[in-house]
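Per reviewer request, we include the raw input and output of the structure prediction for the construct analysed in the revised manuscript.
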Amino acid sequence: MSSVGLLVILAVYLFILFYIAHWAEKRSHSKWTNNPYIYSLSLAVYCTAWTYYGSIGVAADSGLSYLPIYLGPVLIIPVWMIILKKIIRISRVNKISSIADFISLRYGNSRFLGALVTMVCIFGIVPYISLQLKSISDTFHIVTKTQSSSDIFTDTTTYVCIALALFASYYGTRYVDASEKRRGIVTAVAIESILKLVFFLIVGVYVTYFVYNGFGDIYDKASVLEGFAKKNSVGGLTNGINWLFLCVLSLFAIFLLPRQFHTSIVENNKESHIKTAMWLFPLYLLLFNIFVFPIAWGGNILFQGKGLNSDTYSLLIPQFFNNNFLTVLVFLGGFSAAISMIVVSSIALSIMLSNNLLIPYGFIGSLKNISPEKNSKRILNSRKIGIFSLIIIAYAIYRIFILDYSLVSIGLVSFVVIAQLAPSFFGALFWRRGSNIGAVVGIILGFLISIYTLLIPYAIGITKSSSLFIQEGPWGIELLKPFQLFGLDYLQPIPHAFFWSMFFNTMSYLAVSVSFKGNYRERNYAEMFVDINKYISNHEDAFVWKGTAYISDIQKVLQRFLGEERTKRALSIFNLKYNVDKNATMADSRFIKFAENLLTGHIGTASAKILISSVIKEDKVSLPEVLRILEESKENIIVNKKLTETSNELKKISEQLKNANQELVNKDIQKDDFLDTVTHELRTPITAIRAASEILYEDDDIPDELRKQFLQNIISESDRLNRLIDKILDLEKFETGKQKIYLSKNNISRTIRKTLESLSQLIKNRTITIDFQEANKEIKAFYDEERIVQVVHNLLSNAIKFCSQTDGKISIKIKENKEDIEVQIHNNGRVIKEEDFEAIFDKFYQSRNQNVKKPIGSGLGLAICKQIIEHHKGRIWAENTDGKGVTFIFTLPNYNTTENIQK
């Protein structure tokens, strides 16, 4: 393919990435940009051009030696989730935006330690960026079949660097607060992760199943090649130890690489996203490695003896078969792998460079007395300059030093350098005794050992057999040979350098930390880091500080960076959180910590401490006093937690008492209504009886016919009075358990017909239509027929009472289920409010949705029905029927007594 054509494709591709980043930045709260899958895929920035091309080169030249780099992250995954969650919590509450901030804050806000970590990261990562540029350049010339140019103006990589620097500086420096989320960058990286995986799988399938006839075919043909069996075995103990060190090295990298820290910690929106990352990230690595072996050995078979660069087999194979489309796809996948690493790493390093080197050691003094707008502009410009500078330096290293080395060799050198942060980093999480001096000494010694055993030999030229330094050691001292230090001659250069640098780093960190205790600030942060779960909700409470500080002075410092409006808003949040009087003038330790956190995202932890310290007077605190205050703080946190739990419990109890009281009030109202109704009901028949009796008593000449009528009224009203008293007594007996039911085998259809006959005249008077849908079987059950008649009578009486006044209709259905017999009585009157469905079965209750002003009846009918049905081990309830009336349903247990009606 022509260079111009490929450049056009690259330009379009970069434009698409710019657009994706722009779109995601505008929709930072959208579910498409803020979800666990985007977060998990962004972690795949771990898979750089080294993974995309270099793994194939290692597999082709050394067999299975490429696996340890992926085994380390996979093996640590279960523990990784726990550790990662702890780091995220620490970083979130302290507004940490880089690994340099993280380590320097733990060891007492040490400015020097933050700068040291930054320098180590720059030394380790800038050559790694150069590695990515090398991959872009090499693969571009392979695809276009051109030669690399010594002229930087005709080198395509020059313009790629400029484009990436513009992209990273624009989207990576949009926020002054470095701890803000950059959804545009993260989404673009996640999309690139998908593309590079898909393109790699496509070429893997192509090589395995189109060039060859599957894995078996490749294995059969490769197994006859020289050295195949030896390369594709773990080997003896020596090789196993090399593998072990490489696994540990890659394990450290997943935590310590600045780009990994940035994507996994700084860009994490929710802790819950880790759960998805826990399975998706290892799956991603697994998928990436499925076709490494087929491509590597498929290339060895095709290009045996031709001396081609095995790193580029994924490009050379489709190109060999003139498949230009697939060749370009593979190139774009490798390009994605490279630029995602370059962009994220340059952003992470620029934040460290500005917050831990330029500001604390450069222009922090000039930031004190200028406006927030100018401060913000200077901070952002420093980061932009940092991004451009880092990429230019990486480009220079690529042009001068790195052209002769493989992708994997330079990548592993970077891993060894970054690994020097491991003892102080993991010590910060789990060891309280770790000190600033121990961390500094350990990192410096480990870094110097890695320079001696790796960087110097690589700079001289690892293949130069004439180098006396490499072959004999300095001054001919064989024990100091860089690749066989102190006589250790069975480790490969990378594991060898890693072992010795880690040995001196870790031992010096432990020994110095134990020998020289850190100051009170270090011990303070040690407690807060190690026990973050105890302090996460009120971490300001755990900050130990004594001295004199005025809120107004600190407020002026904050305004120079946050602006007046944001500062006021932050102070309001603090006052509300800790119930502080807004008119208070003196600042306490909580406010000092709160203010430092607000500044940390802008200028880093060390600079934040310097600025706040410039306007306060701090008294020294002894270590025993720190421990005492921390112990008190723990106790206060526990007490506050218990008080909060007690308060919540009291609120719950208070709410329950309130509800119970309201229920009692409602019951009292219902009882009053009941007594009013019962009094009325009792008075009515008594009044009628008294009136009729008086007439009969006073008038001896009353006609016989009229006398009989009055006597009949007395009898009927007495019966009415008797029924009312019976209901009250029935209900009382059911509730107290004194009422007995007498079960016998009965036909439910016959029971309902008997009840209908007793109400036939009333039904006829109301001109109501009855639709009784009897079953085609004679359904019998054991129940107290007298009581079930009472239930059906009550339900039918209610149905008659509330039926439609014009075209009243009552439907009765009997339904036999496996467990019970169900009776449904429906009327086409008004519906019942849903909130009344349960209440209508309470005693004293009368529906307020009746067609009369004054409720009719005693309010006991449905309550008695419920008691009767429940005594039969059944259920009763009401349902509205699509706005066309109400259905009352009750069930009785089915004892399998069905008999065919024909019998």
